[in-house]
Design a protein that fits this description.
The chain has helices at residues 402-405, 435-438; strands spanning 16-21, 25-30, 34-39, 54-59, 70-73, 77-82, 87-92, 106-112, 121-126, 130-135, 140-144, 159-164, 173-178, 182-187, 192-196, 211-216, 225-230, 234-239, 244-248, 263-268, 277-282, 286-291, 296-300, 315-320, 329-334, 338-343, 348-352, 367-372, 387-388, 399-400, 406-408, 425-427, 430-432, 454-456. It is an all-beta fold. Strand 9 and strand 10 form a beta hairpin.
Length: 459
């Protein structure tokens, strides 16, 4: 292992084991237990000790000796888990306690979550502002923002450290997924649960109500659920049979049913009924599914090419992504507006929004077809030449309180703030401008721009 962690410049060839994508950043786990990240870094989500964007993958030096085995991105924060040391690390935007450290401060390099230390954790799920963990015994712990009950604790108070979800006492949970303000779970017995914000039917419970504790989704006859993923406000589930089901918000066709209608309970995606689906991921308003033959399908919102089918038109039914030739996809992850995949040849591809460098190609260009990340791919540089962030230590990390870092400012394109104070609201600590002001018919609570409306005031 020490040899595998030799200096990257001219060092050993490495493979990408897994990838995870956030709102505008991406993180990858490399062989040799190295972790690298790239994209937007304003909130510390890259873990390099600063707030700079990175357009190429950069190794997080603070995690070099932490024996990381998996990584998971939230919208603007990141987690990493070590199986061998039974430690979970988090860093990035800390509002609402989403980092699990007992405060709302941002962290620019990883810090261990004390409340999970020593526990056998088999999965971490991150939403926009909340996180959950499954223990080896199938117990669930949750923390972070909770205004719609997405933590499943029976109340709507934010929680700054991991708390056990009592509703799953005696129920072994197999897999978790987290969306903007809702959460889903699959149990070892194949049952599906949803809780949190339910306005669009994204909980699968047949109505548009919020739930403060997990509610069991009515079983699909003859099916037991095996996998689950969440988009921003929609949910994707895969049965043991390989059949794909979606429900929730479908304004952009992200459910894949050939229409733009919300669905309040799981509906099978008929276009893929003859495919055996083995992996799924949900973006802000788009969805991808991977079948057993290594073929990848995408659908939903496609303004930046994140569906990957060569155009920027929205698609309400699955489209085969043909830009990865003579390779089988083995893993896929969706960010808010971008998508990243790994193939059986050890190559890594990305496409969609690239304005913050989250595609990892060394530029800030959007792409509507998959492009290989040369620095990471086996048929490219295989991680040779990848650089590391300044030396750090995962045991200690600098932190900045939100009050010290940010002042809320108006979007310069909409005129003086004083003229619109009566029209503004906040979401996740950001000032949002209603669509009426912007002349848009889009959902009022969905910010349409990825340009920040927060001004960093100190660092």
């Amino acid at each position: 292992m020490e040899e595998d962690k030799a200096a990257c410049s001219g060092g050993p060839r490495r493979r990408v084991i897994s990838v995870s994508a956030g709102a505008s950043h991406t993180v990858a786990l490399l062989s040799g237990d190295l972790v690298c990240s790239w994209g937007r870094g304003e909130d510390g989500q890259l873990g390099h000790g600063d707030a700079e964007e990175r357009h190429l993958p950069l190794v997080i030096s603070a995690l070099d000796d932490c024996e990381i085995s998996s990584i998971t991105c939230g919208a603007d924060h990141t987690t990493a888990r070590s199986e061998s040391t039974r430690t979970v690390y988090s860093w990035g935007w800390g509002d609402f306690g989403r980092l699990g450290h007992g405060n709302s401060s941002d962290l620019f390099i990883p810090r261990a979550i004390k409340g999970l230390k020593g526990l056998e954790i088999k999965q971490i799920a991150c939403g926009d502002s909340h996180c959950l963990a499954i223990t080896g015994d199938g117990e669930v712990h949750s923390w972070g923002r909770n205004q719609n009950g997405q933590l499943g604790l029976g109340h709507t108070e934010d929680v700054l450290v991991p708390n056990k979800v009592a509703a799953f006492e005696g129920i072994a949970v197999k897999m978790l997924a987290a969306g903007a303000e809702h959460t889903a779970a699959v149990t070892e017995s194949g049952k599906l649960y949803g809780w949190g914000w339910g306005r669009y039917g994204n909980l699968g419970l047949g109505d548009r109500n919020d739930r403060l504790v997990p509610g069991e989704v009515a079983a699909v006859p003859g099916e037991k659920m095996n996998l689950v993923a969440c988009g921003w406000r929609h949910t994707i589930a895969v049965a043991n049979s390989g059949n794909l089901y979606t429900f929730g918000w479908s304004k952009y066709g992200q459910l894949g049913h050939g229409d733009f209608e919300d669905h309040l309970v799981p509906h099978q995606v008929q276009a893929l009924k003859n495919k055996t689906i083995q992996a799924v991921s949900g973006g802000w308003r788009h969805t991808v599914a991977l079948d057993e033959d290594g073929e990848l399908y995408g659908w939903g919102w496609n303004k930046f090419g994140q569906v990957g089918c060569g155009n920027t038109d929205d698609h309400n039914s699955p489209k085969l992504i043909t830009g990865i030739v003579n390779e089988k996809v083995t893993r896929v992850t969706c960010g808010w507006r971008h998508t990243v995949a790994i193939t059986d040849r050890g190559n890594v591809y990305s496409w969609g929004r690239g304005t913050s460098g989250q595609l990892g190609h060394g530029d800030a260009v959007d792409r509507c077809v998959p492009k290989r990340i040369e620095l990471l791919s086996a048929d490219g540089l295989a991680c040779q030449g990848i650089e590391s962030s300044p030396s750090g230590n995962c045991a200690s990390s600098n932190w900045i309180s939100p009050a010290e870092r940010y002042a809320v400012v108006p979007d310069e394109t909409i005129g003086p703030l004083t003229n619109r104070l009566h029209q503004t609201n906040y979401m996740d600590g950001e000032l949002l401008v209603p669509n009426a002001v912007l002349g848009s018919s889009r959902d009022a609570s969905v910010p349409d721009s990825d340009k920040t409306k927060r001004l960093r005031t100190a660092l």
